[in-house]
Amino acid sequence: MENIGATAKVEGGYMGFSASLSASFDKFKKSKTDNTTFSENKVEFSSGGPDMPEPIRLGLMPIYNAINTLFFRKLDRRYQCGELAKRRNNVKTILKKYPRIKNVKKPEDPETRIPITWPLGTYGLPMPKSGCPHQTFWHEGTRLHDTENSGVPRNAWSDPYDLAGIIAKNDMEQKFCMKTKDRTSEYNLPWPTGQYCIFKKGNCPEGLETGSIKWDDEDDNNHDSLTGSLPDGEYTHDTKIYFCCRTDGHATNAIVLPTDSPFVLFKSNTHQCQYVKEMKVTSEYFYWDNEDDQHPNTDIRGQAPYAKEEGLNDADIRLDYCYYVKAED
């Protein structure tokens, strides 16, 4: 769900989930959305019959016309019926007493609230230092990049840098949180429109497109390694990882995702981080000093995260991250 605006808000735990989304009917009624047509209700009826002539015309009007003085005045002028005033008073009396006789209470808007869950699909997120989200369907994985060792190693990273894993001038770890189960709750919704990327695991979720980044890791005495659950990719003496990216919305239109723990997304084709409702975001990066040979294997293809090929022969990669924590009240 994107850009939920003023008629809905993120709230606390609900039905065993850590966060929820509720609708405000008061705000909805005051918004322009209140006039939106949601559906049609068609009713058919017949009038007249063999023993009752067909009326020339039927008119449908709201019930408040039945107690409107002007309405009865027009009828009286047209038909000169002395009983109209009496009938009007009878209708008013009936309408006034009927709710009390039937013990009718003023209706109240029902609570409209659903839990906020991680969207449908199988995919992965970069792991923050706090670890994966708390739900049991997340699985951890690690890819160690043996980056350039010759000369003066030039790996670099932002300050702050809130992603998990070892980082050094000549090595770095990417750590992953992988969701390998498509549906985890009856309340799962599709990923919303926006500007962001996630790791690919199986088919990209609906609305997201595929891209990839290839890192040209160290050639000499390479000690790349891997453990656990990983994104789709090719893990040899180099590293190629596939991504799923969305570019059909605006980063400044806040989307709704779980708020119970920190998480990380990638930027897509923009320098901006996707806004997330009730979350504060920090833009961070890591710069890989890849192999320095004359024929680098570094490559960025398709709908990949916002990244730059830099350094000697454009062999190095700078990749931007968006780190989210719950905003303070």
Automatic annotation (TrEMBL):
Residues 118-324 form the Apextrin C-terminal domain. InterPro entries: ApeC. This is Apextrin C-terminal domain-containing protein.
